[in-house]
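User: For my dataset I need records formatted as: sequence, then structure tokens, nothing else. Please produce one.
Assistant:
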Amino acid sequence: MSSNPITIYPYPIGDGFERFTSKGMCPINPYKNFFEGLFSKFEESNFNTNFLQWGLVTLMYFAGNQGKYWNVLLAGAIAGFIGTLFEGGTAAYVCRKGDINTPRHHLISYLIVEVFWIVKEYSIPFLNLYKIKVFSKGNVGKTAEYIIKILLIFFSGCRFYIGYERMIHGLLTTSETKYGHMAAHGIMGLADLEFPGKSKTNIIKNYLQHSYYITIIFVDLTSILVSLMNGITEMYKDVIPNSFLNPFQSIKCAFILLLACDALIFEQNIGVYTYYKKDITNDYKFEKDNNNNNNLYNDNNNDNDNENDNENESENENEKKEYITIDITKV
């Protein structure tokens, strides 16, 4: 019975050629050209996710979902798309057959791309901040904003550390980058922690408990798991393979798309709610506005909303009804 052994190509070894070793990102068969390498990246889930995420969020945005919240979603999706092109394009270029004998001591593109990863990944805490500022009373929103901005400094430091290590070693994954990811995603988990506060309306609070809170907890839990798995798979790499990290990493990669879908569902199910307090009792009765064109995540109709609010105030002045319009894009 004969076997077919794997062919080992005679790559150069030593400093500048680690990309062709088992620790590197180059395949055993080098790419014939740059485009073959780039298109082969579509076999990787993270590359596909960032590409698809950019396309879908852009489609949602130009379909009419424009506003502050959607601006951040679009910026995060575009940053992820550019980042994945930079990262995948770098590997496609340095893993060509024509580049086999070229030492690559430093890959500066791996440091530059961290700017886009920072924008993409840290857009999540800022998206959550918008919701917190809208649906919470008191100083909860301001406190959350200060904490998130401070943590941004530490998160950026971790990401640039990852980029620096990748640049000087010419590799995507090293022990240093794994621990850097552990720290970065740990900070992400802290930034995504819920800041509980009294909701402006009971109906909003009830909805958030079943949708918004669940989404935030899911995002936060995934970030923490990615952080822990980066450390565990590095510290116990002889026992736990790095592939154990992949499911959590793939989910984290799609956070922008997840929140975009959540925003669409939120708009569909909630719309704009008003409430008024009864004159006799302390109970609150909630009613849904019949104007279906209003949009919690869209501030395009603000002028019409203001005109309608002025008319309602004059008509209901004697009824002592208090109306509240919630627009997440005006925070």
